[in-house]
Amino acid sequence: MFAELEGVKLYYEEVGSGEPVILIAGINSNHRFWKGMIPLLEGYRVITIDNRGVGQTEYEGEISIDGVADDVIGLMDMLGIQKAHVVGWSWGSQISQSLAMRYGDRLQTLTLVSSYQFRPYRSAYFMGCLASIAKEGGISAESMNVTFNAFCLTESAFEKMAKNGISVPIPKHPEDPAEVIKQIRSMDNFDPTEHTKDIKVPTLVVHGAADIMVEPKKGRAIGEAIEGCTYIEIPDMGHTIPPEYYIEPLKKLLSEHKM
Known about the structure:
There is one protein chain. By secondary structure, the protein is an alpha/beta fold. It has one domain (2-118, 192-256): 3-Layer(aba) Sandwich (Rossmann fold), CATH 3.40.50. 36% of the residues lie in helices and 19% in strands. The protein contains eight helices and nine strands. Strands 1, 2, 3, 4, 5, 6, 7, 8 and 9 form a nine-stranded mixed β-sheet that branches. Helix 1 (65-79) packs across helix 2. The model has no long low-confidence stretch (mean pLDDT 97).
């Protein structure tokens, strides 16, 4: 489905009924990122979106984190949703932070997965370089995705898949590297470090203890900054954390803060 909003034709999907939960994915990831989470949230109205730069969403110009957050509010307005639970992963967690700081009255709860305040310098460097090389045709978009996966998953995850004869899937229709570059550049102009402490929404922060894309200390900094925040660090998990590893604390947060 599409929402015709100001400056964007936003693609979204929704499943189920109940209190709304909006799931926001990260750089180079569309709404399909959350396919494993949706069945675990039975009893909720689960909404997923294609952020600007990925999937079926159409827009023109540059991408800003505040701008994508505004898209979420525009979608909520169109759907008649006054308040929602928001879950953001990686770059999606920055979008979620923008929502919490600027539209706190529209969020019932906030969950930040594999999160950070200002972008990690090393990850921004290699992701930006790879996307730029792919844009110029030096490597394929598939090769870019392979490298991103290598930084998002742990050695033990690759070992487990290898022993089970499973390989990490590579998208059949990868995102446009030029658009991924725009998403990456949006991080350069967004630094909520001094304002994270002002977030008053009930918050859960989840981080993988073995995350090399975003070091755990960056997640801990958010957990320490937000008053009353619950911080969970999951052993042997990397940047991409299967939702079954944190669904119970997430559902606990949702049930404790019903609308």
